[in-house]
Amino acid sequence: MWWHRCQTAYHGPRREGRLRDALLVREGEPVAKPADWSTWHDRYEDPQSPLSLRLALVQEETRKAIERRPPGPIRLVSICAGQGRDVIGVLAGHPRQGDVAAALLEFDPENVEQARRHALAAGLANVSATVADASCTDCYDGVVPADVILICGVFGHLSPDDVRRTISYLPHLCAPGATIVWTRHAGLRHGSANLTPSMRTWFQESSFEELAFRTTADGHGVGAHQLVAPPKPYEPGLRLFTFLDPTPK
User: Fold this and answer.
1) Which of 7, 18, 44, 113 has most Cβ atoms within 10 angstroms of its Cβ?
2) What whole-number distance in Å separates Cα of residue 24 and Cα of residue 182?
3) Using an 8 Å Cβ cutoff, are 150 and 77 in contact?
4) Percentage of the chain surpassing pLDDT 90?
5) H/E element holding 224?
6) How many CA atoms lie within 13 A of 171 on its CB side?
7) Percent share of the chain, pLDDT over 70
8) Residue 117 CB contacts under 8 Å (≥ 6 apart), including other chains
9) What digits encode the pLDDT tens for the residues 7-59?
10) Distance CA 102, CA 74 (A)
């Protein structure tokens, strides 16, 4: 497989600054500057917004994934978790919230702080939010193998090669029978090709069985896939993806 090795220099101040700029965008919704982060997440306050409609589907599939697990502890990992609304909204008041140890991995410190506040307000002591570069497998040490993995608002900002690479690596982060909940906009509204049919095939090729795939009226696709083969060994030090430069060309 065509993995890239993580480089120490990647975390230097100049490179980190460029990555922060590249992360100032969510699926289908470019953001101009760091000060807009809170405003971007405020769109979730409108229950009829495209983001809220997508969030409802993600939460539904996450609930099902948790309820699908046998009795006992459940590990959940959210990749590029933002403020963790999908996870926190599911666990608050859920009958199995005490079973779930959730790790929210997010690069933006302000989002991480917001996630911590939301988790605290919901009484979820078993939810951790960490400033982390989720594109490098080093940050998954100690939180995998996971029973439920969310990768939402990510695939729309990767090249097709990086999308396929990331999907193919997911079995290395999974516990047996793990469920992946993922999103990707059809792309037609933004002038790009609809990659979701290929992605569903790539999940199948990576030993995942499709449990669900739905789209909102706005074109946001939400999928759930379950690992049906033995997991693969976790390997640190690999670069899975790089966010595309959101600057218009």
Assistant:
1) 44
2) 20
3) yes
4) 70
5) strand 220-227
6) 18
7) 76
8) none
9) 543 333 333 333 333 333 334 443 333 444 444 455 555 555 667 799 999 99
10) 8
> Other CB atoms closer than 10 Å to residue 56's CB: what's the count?
15
**DSSP for 7-49, written as a single string:** -GGGGSHHHHHHHHHHHSEETTEE--SGGGHHHHHHGGGSTTS
Q: According to the model, what pLDDT value does residue 2 have?
A: 57
The structural domains of the chain, ordered by start, are 4-239 (3.40.50.150)
Of the listed ranges 131-140, 148-157, 189-198, 200-209, the one predicted with least confidence:
189-198
Nearest to 209 by CA among 192, 190, 228: 228
Name the residue among 222, 241, 219, 201 with its Cα closest to residue 65. 222
Q: Which two tokens stand for residue 186?
A: 């059809």
Question: SS3 of 208, please?
Answer: strand
CA distance 163 to 83: 22
Look up the pTM and report it.
0.84
Residue 69: DSSP 8-state: S
| C-alpha distance from residue 234 to each of 26, 142, 158, 174 (Å) | 27, 10, 22, 9
Q: What are the angstrom distances between the C-alpha of 241 and each of 30, 81, 137?
A: 19, 16, 10
- The whole-angstrom separation of Cα 142 and Cα 124 is 19
CA distances from 56 to 44, 61, 87, 210, 233 (A): 10, 9, 11, 19, 33
